[in-house]
C-alpha cells in the first residue's frame, strides 16, 4: 500500500488497545521546529480525505524527522512534519498531524484484533516510494534515492528474493492491476518470468480457489484512479475506503482458499507519505546494504531508516491481538523494516542461498510467531467488516495530472512498449491525465507480456531479457518488434 504513516492509519487504536504504541493526544509539532514560541499543532483523530499529496522526497523527510538539515540528533526528534507541510496549502499542517478514527478504517481495526500488528516496522530508507519498494524484494535500492531515468529504463540489476526462490526450486507469482511495479527489477523482465505475471481480476481468486497460489505471491494495487476502476492503493488523494475494500477482498479470498492453513499475508506501506509519526526513526546501527552511495548532492549512505509505517501479519498460526514490538536480533540494533520480508522468507523456506545484502542479514525476522501454536486456528473470521462509507466527497478525477509515483510508472510502461527510445521520453507522463496514463500503462503491459509469450512459443532463450521497439501496431507485428538480450 502507499504513503501513510503508522500514527496516521493506526495511531488511535491505542485508545482501546494500550498495548499498541499509538497516539494519546499529547503529541505535537510546532509550525517552526526551531522556535519554541511558534504555534503548536497537536495530533487529532480527524483524518479524512486529503486532496493534495504531502511532501515525501528525501529533503522533505529529512526536515520532517529532524526539523532541519542537521541529521545528528539521537534520537530523531520527529519535529518537522507541520513545518514541512506549512507551505503546501491551507490546512496541510493539520492534515499531516491527523489520524483516522478506528471506525474509519474498520478492516484494519478488525485485523489488529484478530491477528498481529507491528508497531515498530519502518520504511527502509528515508525517501519516497520507489526506493522503499525495491527494498521489499531485494533489501537494497541499488543506490536509488529518487527517480533515475537510466535505472527505470534498464531495470534495477540487484539480486532479488524472486531469484533466491527460483534457485531453491520454489514458485512465485505477481498479481497486478494497472501495471506491475515489480517490473522495475531487471531480472523479472526475463522471458521465463513473464508467465508469472497474472491479472489480479482474472486469476487471483481462481488460483486461490483451486489451491494453486505459488509459494510467494505479490499482490499489487491499482495505482490509477479511474471512474470504472478506482485506485485502491491509499496514495493521496485516493480514497482510503477503496483500499479498505481491497484488503478485505484479498483477505476473504485467502480465507476461503484450501491453502489458508498454509498462508501468511503481510500488509505494509512503502513509506509514510509525509504524515506524522511520533516514534523516532532509527538512525544508529543501520548497515549500508551493498556499499553503494546515493548520488549527489547528498551522497546518502543508506544508514538511516525511514518513518514507521502500518504493517500486519495475518495467518491462522497467529494468536489474536498480537502486537509485535522490536525484534530480538539478529543484532542489537536490528529493526523490522521492509528487508525483514526477504529475510523471513529465507528462514521460512530454509533457502540455501545467501542473504541478498547486509541489510536483510541485519533486519529483524518474524518466523517465530508462526511457531507459538501447535495447530492453526479455526476461529479466524471468514468475513471482515463492510466498508459502508467513502472518505472522499466525490469520485475519481480522470482528468487530474499524475503524481510523481505515477509518472515513474509511465516511464516504466514506456520501457515495456519501447517508447523510451523516443526523444519525447524525458517528458512522458508529465502531460498525461490519469485516464490517459491508465490506458497507456495497461496497453504497454499487455503488449510486453504478449510479445514475451510469442517469443517463448517461438523457442527464444528463456533467460533472455525482453526489450521492445516503439510503435507496435498490431498483434501480428509483436514478434517482429521484439528483441531479446542476454
TrEMBL record:
Listed Gene3D superfamilies:
Alkaline Phosphatase, subunit A
Asked whether the UniProt record includes Manganese among its keywords, one would answer no
Write the record's keywords in alphabetical order, separated by commas: Hydrolase
Domain of life of the source:
Eukaryota
Set out the biological process GO terms recorded for this chain's protein.
Answer: phospholipid catabolic process
- Matching InterPro entries, A to Z? Alkaline_phosphatase_core_sf, Phosphoesterase
| GO molecular function ontology, one term from the record | phosphoric ester hydrolase activity
PANTHER family in the record, alphabetically?
NON-SPECIFIC PHOSPHOLIPASE C1, NON-SPECIFIC PHOSPHOLIPASE C4-RELATED
Which family is it part of? Belongs to the bacterial phospholipase C family.
Q: What is this protein called?
A: Phospholipase
